[in-house]
């Protein structure tokens, strides 16, 4: 039996449902942040993250900070780019605009490469842009939570290595890590930033980042000091290294219960081959998308090849809006999210399918959600006499 | 019966023991950060904070962010001080050095006024400093967690209003809010920053700040943009205002479970007059200090008038070190902290007495700790043949 009280199924693109074990870990009794039991747990968690991101280079550096996913942008902007340097920002929705804003605050010069809604910038135009100017970094949203568009990390990486090998590849993996295939080493990623509350299956409150050896070298050779105090690699690097060596260390108090929850979730994730986890997310995503099509609904993603496997953004039938349909889902025990992309927010809804809701099929949440969507649409359309 | 497994009593100056209700709130099921149930909880929590800080000015602005207490310094440095402006930093230990570092990162020019260890800067020297130069802000650590020294906020505030009324009074209340007397309005405080894991009685992971109307006006009239993205008032102000008006809003995902825990803790704190809570902290602190004296031990605080009520920093007998005594306490189910002030870290220990461990006397944790200290010291001294 679940230890959590009965509640609607949270099927938005994060936060997501958490397992009973993770929920229990959140209620962990108070621990000293510098006492050996917690130090060992945090150390193990950092090592687990190496496995999750699939990096075996000991000089790859994990960071786990109290913060929202957004804090990962500050980590990149304040540590890896110096004032005046150019950054190429691939735009697939809401989050590129915000990342660009963040870069500007710290003095970088972002150039956005925008794709039409539902699409992603194409390799030839990215190649042309990279040849035009020297970019310190290229940022890409792996899964754009606002549109459900998936970007191709391997192809991007290949392009960068060929055309502009000094450019750092920065992957915003907030809605992808733990659900979409990421192989930090093989894909030659320099930064992959994420948050705890998406496909990793934890409550929100942790900013989680993996940084490559190359990016750490870039950081170490920067001329200006980091542009942030709380988000400074300089302040956190010795702390993370000490914790991973099971040595107590202090810069700011880590959120001990959230780290316990992350440790618990990662233990569960890593108890099976990570490739099985990616395959399960893909299988369920394909199923959801086929059912959405059966309902006569259209995805935002313009092509199956650029559709995420952790979520589906779905256009509503002409004339229907999220405030009409979402309560019908809620009355059936299902929570979806409304639109987030400013230009079309009133026209679509978002269904997050990641973590325990899809790895534990006995929960039956995916079919419950699809049925709720079908019935809810019918109810609204009937009421409107359509 | 407690819902938390048996564990050693965490009596360090934060994180502290949490109540069963708070622990259960941490295990709250997943909620949408923009769904009405959580929006209402967050809104209520922000209003509760007005009561905790004792401000009735509707233009005082609470901020609750995912982050460690340290993030509060970035909030001040990135939003309220502009590059090149002077800040007077009152030094009572470790934390002033760090706050000064943070201010420098964002371009401010901190001037430290240092007191001897165990003491605090005196009003006449502060007055002289304020007359010498125009300071944008003065920062003071209300309770310095590294030394247990208490600063006098009311007297400081009176001085500032008299000598340099434009200077913002910034109180680092990380180890004080919820335990030491703070009256935001009466004391004319401009910023009071704190964290969740000290006298507020929550797990770590939340940065909590109250900002005065005057300070918000200073922010709104700044010439340069805020120096941080994640810690920007510009990004968070509309979010906090919307949540408090029970309207969904999004900049970055708040840590929903930690907010539930904070709401639960504040509900308990505010169910009794806040003055009773301060009195209870004072009563237990006086008791601890009298017992420490009975044991022949000396406090770091040079005078009872500048000793905190939320913690006690205790010099060990000559020749004894924290690594010798702390395990003896641990074997008796009590966790104290070692020294933190670099110059004397090996000579003292720290006892945090705040929150549920002292408001719920039936837990018996204070006497358990004092007995463990007495027995532990005797054991070490016997083993050393002293």
UniProtKB/TrEMBL annotation, chains A, B:
Substrate binds at residue 350. This is alanine--glyoxylate transaminase. Coiled coil: none annotated. Residues 23-341 form the Aminotransferase class V domain. One of its GO terms (biological process) is glycine biosynthetic process, by transamination of glyoxylate. The modification N6-(pyridoxal phosphate)lysine is found at residue 198. Pfam families: Aminotran_5 (PF00266). It is an enzyme of class 2 (transferase). Its cofactor is pyridoxal 5'-phosphate. GO terms for molecular function: alanine-glyoxylate transaminase activity; L-serine-pyruvate transaminase activity. Belongs to the class-V pyridoxal-phosphate-dependent aminotransferase family. GO terms for cellular component: peroxisome. It comes from the Eukaryota. The keyword Ribonucleoprotein does not apply. Its EC number is 2.6.1.44. InterPro entries: Aminotrans_V_dom, PyrdxlP-dep_Trfase, PyrdxlP-dep_Trfase_major, PyrdxlP-dep_Trfase_small, SP_NH2Trfase/AEP_transaminase. It comes from Cladophialophora chaetospira. Keywords: Aminotransferase, Pyridoxal phosphate, Transferase.
């Amino acid at each position: 039996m679940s230890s959590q009280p009965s509640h609607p199924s949270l099927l938005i693109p994060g936060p997501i449902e958490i397992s009973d074990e993770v929920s229990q870990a959140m209620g962990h009794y108070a621990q000293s942040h510098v006492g050996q039991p917690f130090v060992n747990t945090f150390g193990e968690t950092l090592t687990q993250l190496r496995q999750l991101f699939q990096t075996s280079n000991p000089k790859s550096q994990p960071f786990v900070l109290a913060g929202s996913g957004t804090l990962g942008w500050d980590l990149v902007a304040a540590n890896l780019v110096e004032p005046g340097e150019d950054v190429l920002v691939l735009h697939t929705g809401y989050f590129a605009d915000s990342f660009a804003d963040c870069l500007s605050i710290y003095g970088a010069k972002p150039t956005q490469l925008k794709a039409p809604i539902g699409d992603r910038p194409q390799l030839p135009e990215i190649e042309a842009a990279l040849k035009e100017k020297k970019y310190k970094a290229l940022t890409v949203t792996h899964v754009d939570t606002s549109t459900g568009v998936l970007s191709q990390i391997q192809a991007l990486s290949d392009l960068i290595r060929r055309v502009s090998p000094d450019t750092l590849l920065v992957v915003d993996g907030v809605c992808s890590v733990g659900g979409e295939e990421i192989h930090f080493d093989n894909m030659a990623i320099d930064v992959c930033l994420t948050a705890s509350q998406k496909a990793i299956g934890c409550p929100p409150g942790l900013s989680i980042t993996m940084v490559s050896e190359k990016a750490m070298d870039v950081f170490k050779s920067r001329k200006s000091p980091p542009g942030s105090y709380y988000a400074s690699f300089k302040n956190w690097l010795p702390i993370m290294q000490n914790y991973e060596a099971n040595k107590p260390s202090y810069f700011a108090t880590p959120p001990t219960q959230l780290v316990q929850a992350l440790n618990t979730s990662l233990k569960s994730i890593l108890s099976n081959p990570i490739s099985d986890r990616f395959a399960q997310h893909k299988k369920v995503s394909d199923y959801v998308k086929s059912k959405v099509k059966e309902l006569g609904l259209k995805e935002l993603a313009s092509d199956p090849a650029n559709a995420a496997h952790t979520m589906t953004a779905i256009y509503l039938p002409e004339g229907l809006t999220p405030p009409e349909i979402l309560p019908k889902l809620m009355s059936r025990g299902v929570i979806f999210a409304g639109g987030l992309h400013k230009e079309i927010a009133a026209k679509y809804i978002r269904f997050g399918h990641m973590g325990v809701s899809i790895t534990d099929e006995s929960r039956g949440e995916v079919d419950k959600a699809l049925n709720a969507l079908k019935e809810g649409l019918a109810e609204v359309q009937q009421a409107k006499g359509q």
